[in-house]
Each structure stands twice: as structure tokens, then as C-alpha cells.
Amino acid sequence: MIASVVPGPALRCAGLVKRYGAVLAVDGLDLEVRRGECFGLLGPNGAGKTTTIEILEGLLAPDAGDVEVLGRSWARDSRHLRERLGIQLQETFFSDKLSVEEILRLFRSFYPRGRDVDTVLAMVELESKRRAWFGKLSGGQKQRLAVACALVGEPELLFLDEPTTGLDPQSRRQLWALLERYRADGGTILLTTHYMEEAEVLCDRVAIVDRGRVIALGTPRELIASLGADHVVEFAVEDGATPPSLDSLRVLAGVRDARREHEGFAITTSEVHRVVPALLDALDTAGHRLSMLTTHSATLEDVFVALTGRHLRDA
Amino acid sequence: MPDRRPPHPLAELTRTRFLEFVREPEALFWVFAFPILLAFALGIAFRTQAPQPIPVGVVQQDGGEAVLRKLRASDGLAPRVLARDEVDVALRNGRVHLVVEPGRGATPPTYRYDRTRPESRLARLAVDEALQRADGRRDVWSARDELVVTPGSRYIDWLIPGLLGMNVMSTGLWAIGFTVVQARTRKLLKRFVATPMSRGQYLLSHMLARLAFLVLEVGALVTFAWLVFGVPINGSLVTLAAVCLLGALSFAGLGLLVASRARTVEAVSGLLNVVMLPMWILSGVFFSSENFPDVVQPLIQALPLTALNQALRSVMIDGASWTALGVQAGVLTAWGVLSYLVALKIFRWQ
Fold it and tell me: Using CB atoms and an 8 Å cut-off, which of residues 4-23 of chain B contact chain A?
């Protein structure tokens, strides 16, 4: 079809709004996903990521706003779009007593064009499990099967909602590798995640979502650079004396910014080697005893905290 | 092979429905074993027996011995002596169907029994005849008895088609109601509508998968009834199969309708009971629906299970052919088609 070669974004939405009763789940959200990129919606649980992705998938109707997927609209071209998209929902439990192969065959039968079941099994490395019942699979295998069901129609655009939530690190890396291979074949991905590490590894561009809005957009590198510092020093002091004030920390040599954390403080800086001696000095002078001190390279998590004052995992 | 023709969605949907079901041992029990056990139990309880002597009681008092002797002379009666305070309990429990209180002197005896119980009325006739004869009554004439056994007139012959109908109904409704609602709670329906799958075909696959079992479940029950109780099929097997097929499709449609909105397995269980219970009672499974008043008969006749049971009995007992089953076939078709269409319209996919 001509439509598929017309250049233009894989997906575009503008002014998206969705309410659940009094709760505003999506609050005027705009996005554009380019063809061939992996785009991530990063945000804490409850930020409106799932609602957003389900609207884009044509499973939910927005209260307001426009959605255009592969240059088409859900209202007019739903059937056509379903054939060209691959979708993995946040949680799908296939029938426990169907085998991997049976489930894949079923999904393959829905698509007029698509990949061979054997090919997809090889892609997701589940060949050895082809006769295993769904109920007997591990969490990682279930998730790879869910992705396989999304890939079986040879989609141009893949939607993944929290694809690695609840998986162990090894399963997570296996899934990432699978998605990288799909990317390498020219596929486009839109995924949601609340793992900043996942967004940094997989995504070309990331939109940080909080309370139904996009609060930052860019490549992971750009977003981290926006902190103006590439390291974070975290520390805590023992209970007792009055804790140090943020202002007293901000004036230390090399400190870009300081903020309170759960059990202590976090300082952003580009010069760890200057900040740490100065900090130790200042604490010693004030009579504080250090109970914890760590440093790490700045991440998207730090970007989120800098923007919202909250952490991704507990916001 | 990459050029292999992809499987047809309706065939795959039906196939997976079928596999899900046969891999569920409990479901197999309820579909196959339970109706057979039920038929067996009822068949034993209501088996045709040689006429049993009627149990009657005689109150222990003066003259009791004489009455007891006279009753013993009749072979249709099984009299026993009862203390006065045992009488009420024995009557209530059906240990005896009637109690004779012997008369004093020239006073005739008193019969105590419940007139609404047919067996008690029978006991009164037999007891009265035995006592009168013993006291010298002579018959004016005696008729010649010609004993016959009408084929298909036993309770079990009447019961089996009803059980068959009930089974077609309950397995259809339960199997579909449960799998649909389970797929909904597991978000599988939502996942399906995220593909190009045809929704009509999804619902249709449930109805088709039912047919695969139908052959097995009807076959099992009919064969069992024939082997163990000698229940005949007087009509053609093809007609019987066609009636079962129509019934199964009809109830499959109804099952989809019942499951079309429910979000939880508990909710759909309740709904299924609401739908099935009236039909168990009204549609003539265990006893004839003729027992209900005339005003409700039009309603009863419009129920799908009534239509199915009538059609099954016509075929199995009367040997009826298709042409005689127009009304029943119409009722079943209407229920099936309308339920399917309404279900498709109001179905909750997420």
C-alpha cells in the first residue's frame, strides 16, 4: 500500500485527555513517535502511561484529543491498523492449559500476513518450550510469549506496556535483546516503563510522564545533561544533632544542587572529587557523624526526582 | 515452511476452545460422569418393580388380633401391629399407608389415612375389600385381568430425554459462561480485540466447540441408558442428533448472552443459576410440566428447555420425525439466533 511508504511519524497524538470520574488520568498529552525509533514513556505507577498507550492502541476512547497511527485514524481504519500493529498489554494471562505453540498459532491465524510460528518461536527463543503449557512457563518466558504474540503479525509498530515488570535481571536482558533485534529489522517501538535503566538501554527518545502530562522529552543523554551535572552524591547523617541545611550544602565547592532524600540528602555535581572532601569537612565541623555515603552517575531517575521531587519507584 | 497456508481463525479459535476444555478434568466430570451418575441413581430409585404388598398398621387393642388375621389372608397387604402412640409417626413417615382401629363389638373399624396420598387411598380400597370379604361379602362377578407392559411408559424412558435436555442446557451454559468470563478477567478478551480477530467469529467458536462435545456427551448418556435400563430410541438417530444440535446451538447462544457483561466468575455463576433454575423446575425434566396451572403454560412452552425436552421425548418415545417438531425447532432457533445477536451487540470485551 502507498500509505506505508509515505514518510511521516509512526504515531502522533495531540491534546489527549482521559478522565475516570473525578480523576484526570491523562491531562493534555502530546507525543510524536518517529518511524524506526524506540520511544519510551517513563513515569511512576499511576502517571497515566497505561491509559495513554491504550488510547494510542485504539482500546480506549479519549475524552478529547487526536490520535494518528501510521497516518491513519482509529475511527476510520481500525481493521487495517490492527493488521499492522503488534500489542502487548501490561498483563495478559493466556489459557494455562494451552501450549506455547497453540497460543502462537491462534494469534497467527488472526493476521492475513505475518510470520511463521516457527520463525517467531526462534525470535523469542522459546523453541524448547513449544509444547509447554502456558501455566508452566516462568515469568520471563510468559512475557516473551506475550511479545511473540505481538510480533506474529509482522507489525510495523510495536506497543509494549511495562514489558519487563516483575522479571529477574536475566529475563529482562533477554527481552531487551529481542527488542533490539526487532529494532534492527526496522521496526518502531512505543513502550512504557517505570525502570529508568530500561529506558536508558532501549529508548532513542524518552518522554517523562507525570500526572498525565509530559514533563520532559528528549534522548536519555539530553535529559541527563539537563541536570547540568553528571554525578550524584548521596549521604546520610546519624540521628541526634540538627541535620545540615540545604543552603549550607549548596554553597560547598562543586555542588550544582542539593535536595532532601528519604533518609538523607542528594547532591548533584560534575566534580565528585571536589564535593566529597568539602562535604566531609563541613559535616565534621558541624559535629555530624556520617552514616552513609555513595556516589553514582546521574540517571533518568535523578532527572525525574529533579523535576518532581519524587522518586519513580514511590512517586 | 514459510509458504504454508496460515490456519483459519475460526478453526483455530474452535480448536483451542476444545483443547482448553478436554484438558480440564473437572469439566469432563460434570459433562460426562455427572449426568450418567444422575441417570443411574434416578433409574434405580424409580425402577419398575413387581407389585409390593401395601404396608398397613393395626392399632394394638381389643379385636386387633382378629383384624390382623383377616388382613394377613389377603396377599396384597403387609399388616403390622402398632402401639397407639406410634400411629402418627408411622403414618407421617410412610412406614404404613393406613392404620386400622378395630371396632368394639358391633361397631365397624375406623380407617386413619391421608386422603391426599394416592398410596393411602389405594390402601383403603385394599384393606376395606380384605375385611369385608373376610366378614362374608361376596362379589357379584369377577372380571378377567389382562396384564400389559406399554413400551416406553416407564419413568426412566420418560426421564432420560429430560436429563439429556438438561445436560445439553447446563453444559452449554456453564462451559461458555465460564470460559468467556475467565477470558475477560484474564484480560484475554482485551488482548484478542487488539488483534484483527473477528468478534463474531470469536463468539461463534464457542458455539462450534460445544458441538464437538455434544456428540460425546449425548452419545455417552444415550448409550448408558440403553445398555443399563433398556431405554429405546424409537425415532431415527439422525433426527435425534439434529434435535440435540439445535438445542446445543440455542443454549450456546444463551450462554454467550449470560456471559456478555459479567466481570467475575461469581457474577456469572449467579446469573447462570437464575437462568437455569426456572427451567429445571418448569420445563419438565423430572416431572411433567403439565402439573403447572394453565395460565403459565404459554410461558413454559416458550422456554428453550421445554421445547428441547418435548422434541427429545417426541423422537425417543413417540418416534416422531422432523415434520412434527416445527414449533419446538422454531422456539430453539429463535432463542439461539436472538441471544447470539444480542450478545454480539452488548458484549463487554474489556
Answer: 4, 6-9, 11-13, 15-16, 19-20, 23
Dist CA A2 CA A137 (whole Å)? 41
Domain count, chain A: 2
Q: Are B58 and B71 in contact (CB under 8 A)?
A: yes
Q: Which residues contact A95 (CB under 8 A, 6 or more apart)?
A: A103, A134, B16, B20, B183, B188
Residue A119 forms contact with B (CB below 8 Å): yes
Q: pLDDT tens across A87-112, in order?
A: 999 888 899 999 999 999 999 999 99
Confidence band, pLDDT 50/70/90 cuts, at residue A314: low
* Residue type present at position B30: W
- Residue A308 lies inside a defined structural domain of this protein: no
Contact criterion met (CB < 8 Å) for B186 and A92? yes
Residue whose C-alpha cell reads 502507498 in the numeric block:
A2
* C-alpha separations of A32 from A218, A220, B160, B279 in Å: 11, 16, 66, 57
Hey, are the CB atoms on B1 and A116 less than 8 Å from each other? yes
Contacts A–B by Cβ distance under 8 A: 78
Cα(A203)–Cα(A297) distance, integer angstroms: 18
How much is the average pLDDT of A7-16? 90
Domain ranges of chain B: 9-45+154-346, 54-134
Domain assignment present for residue A100? The answer is yes
On chain B, the residues whose CB falls within 8 A of the CB of A89 are 187, 190-191, 194
- Confidence at A6, pLDDT banded by 50, 70, 90: low
Say how far apart CA A41 and CA A199 lie, in whole Å.
Answer: 8
Q: Which domain holds residue A240?
A: 228-297
Residue closest to A15 by CA, chosen among A1, A27, A25: A27
Which residues fall within 8 angstroms of residue A314, CB to CB, at 6 or more apart?
Answer: A44
Q: Do A59 and A84 have their domain in common?
A: yes
Q: Are residues A208 and A284 in the same domain?
A: no
**Distance (Å, rounded) from C-alpha B312 to C-alpha B329?**
11
Whether B196 and A91 lie within 8 Å, measured CB to CB:
no
Query: Per the CB < 8 Å rule, is A108 touching B23?
Result: no
For cell 440455542, name the residue: B250
* CB of B196 closer than 8 Å to CB of A83: yes
> Among partner residues B2, B20, B350, which is closest to A97 by beta-carbon distance?
B20
Whether residue A175 is found in the same domain as residue A278? no
Rounded Cα distance between B76 and B198, Å, is: 70
**In this structure, is residue A147 part of a structural domain?**
yes
Answer yes or no: is A310 within a domain: no
Query: How far is the alpha carbon of B1 from chain A, nearest alpha carbon, in Å?
Result: 8
Question: What average pLDDT does the structure give for chain A?
Answer: 89
Q: What topology is assigned to B54-134 in CATH? A: D-Maltodextrin-Binding Protein; domain 2 (3.40.190)
